[in-house]
Design brief:
Layout lengths: L4 H12 L6 H11 L5 H13 L4 E3 L7 E3 L6 E5 L5 E4 L4 H12 L9 E4 L2 H6 L1
Parallel strand pairs: 3-5
Antiparallel strand pairs: 1-2, 3-4
Helix pairs in contact: 1-2, 1-3, 2-3
């Protein structure tokens, strides 16, 4: 698959938001720019963007796969009530990787870490 206008629009939509959209969240604004674009086409282009390292997928975050244009190593918090996903900028990455490498003797290339709980908004409502 080559990079198409559809792919550019989808990448832009994912990049413009920090809400970590689902494919359905991407589909709605994509249809405004590209009438007739199908949800299958959105999924196919998201898959291509992931394979080419331009976005990352947060599998099952908030009950559905979500997409993130920030491909650098960082952490996420997922609210178990509303599904909100937020980036966490913690400076633990190198330390955690070093600890795992020292403890196991493995060569660590990276890791993913996701925190789950209840966000402030949902906690106040309970």
């Amino acid at each position: 698959m080559r990079r198409t206008r559809q792919c550019e629009v989808i990448k832009t939509i994912v990049s413009w938001t920090d809400s970590h959209p689902t494919a359905e969240d991407v589909h709605e604004p994509a249809r405004r720019q590209l009438p007739g674009i199908s949800l299958d086409t959105v999924y196919r282009n998201l898959k291509w963007l992931i394979a080419n390292g331009e976005i990352q997928v947060l599998e099952g975050a908030g009950g559905a796969n979500r997409y993130d244009a920030c491909t650098r190593n960082h952490y996420h918090f997922v609210c178990e009530c509303c599904g909100w996903v937020i980036d966490l900028n913690l400076s633990l990455r190198e330390k955690l990787e070093r600890l795992v490498a020292e403890d196991t003797g493995f060569l660590v290339h990276g890791h993913k870490l996701e925190f789950r709980g209840i966000c402030d908004r949902c906690r106040v409502q309970k």
